[in-house]
Amino acid sequence: MGNDGGSIPTRRELVKEGAKDLTTTQVKEIQTEQQEHYWTTCALSYEPLSQPVVSDGLGTLYNKAAVLDHLLSIAQEETSKDTLEAKGEAFKDRLRSLKDVVEVKFETGNGPTTASTKWVCPITNKVLGPGTKAIYIVPCGHAFAESVVKEVQGETCLQCDQPYTQNNVISILPISQVEKDRLVQRLCELKASGLTHSLKKASSSGKKRKIGDSTEPYITADESARKNRKSERAPAMTKSQGIKNAGTASLTAKVLAEQEDRKAKRKMVANDNVKSLFSTKDAMDGRNMDFMTRGFSIPANMKR
């Protein structure tokens, strides 16, 4: 070692400049590569996209068959949590049922349908892909170039004339963070309203309601009194409820009410007759008693 004219370099000599930030051109190239991958590959199965193609609330594209397999595996509890996390962000609380996706209806070119068939905008005839910003409309699912929705006035689909709102225009594979935040905010608002990405009602949780829970509205005192009066008249009206003719039903109700009154009077008369068989303490004063009921008493002068 030594005397050979060599030297040992220091870190200062090796690392003369820090890491440089990526240029705009390099960032665009990376984004273009990612977009080409997502436009041609299913985010679930990593297989080439083929119709029917569906999309979730954030504009990610999937094969419909892959989504069905995913939902079945979750229902059968065959997929572990670690497996779902390893598959990426495409599964973060966005794929729970088919209501969370919308089938995207792409228009193909005029050429023969092959594995490399391009999807085009039906209005501008532009190829939908990494070089063109594309959108689809919820709930019909027709896909267009983004410029078409911005330039054409009105809020009806140009393919099926179905009305829609600007909030339900979904960007396919958005790049800008502003657009991603808008789609996330839309999903939060739909969830708070009990709706899914396809604007259908979310499935119920299936939990049984507790016994103490009550969803009946507040009842005032007048309404409760009215209900009590109806319940009192209910026994007399039960037999006439099956009669469809209003006049016959009212006459039957009157007859039944009269019968109830007669029964009540008979009970009162029967009670009076039974009471007459027994004597009370006040009646035992001796004035209205004969020799059979007043008993026997010894005169005072006969006592020794």
Concise account of the structure shown:
This protein is mainly alpha-helical and 304 residues long.
Which secondary structure elements does this structure contain, and how are they paired or packed?
Layout: H1 11-14, H2 24-40, E1 53-55, E2 61-63, H3 64-75, H4 81-86, E3 102-104, E4 107-108, E5 119-120, E6 134-137, E7 143-145, H5 146-151, E8 169-171, H6 177-192, H7 221-237, H8 246-276
Antiparallel strand pairs: 1-2, 1-3, 4-5, 6-7, 6-8
What structural class do helix, strand and pairing data support? mainly alpha
User: How large is the radius of gyration?
Assistant: 44 Å
Tell me, briefly, the overall form: elongated
Q: Roughly what percent helix?
A: 25-40%
Order of neighbouring strands in the sheet with most strands: 2-1-3
User: What oligomeric assembly is this protein in?
Assistant: single chain
Can you summarize the main beta sheet?
Answer: 3 strands, antiparallel
Distance between the termini: 160 Å
Query: What's the total helix number?
Result: 8
List keywords for this structure.
mainly alpha; 36% helix
What does this molecule look like?
- The structure is a single chain.
- With 304 residues, the protein is mainly α.
- 36% of the residues lie in helices and 8% in strands.
- It is elongated, with a radius of gyration of 44 Å.
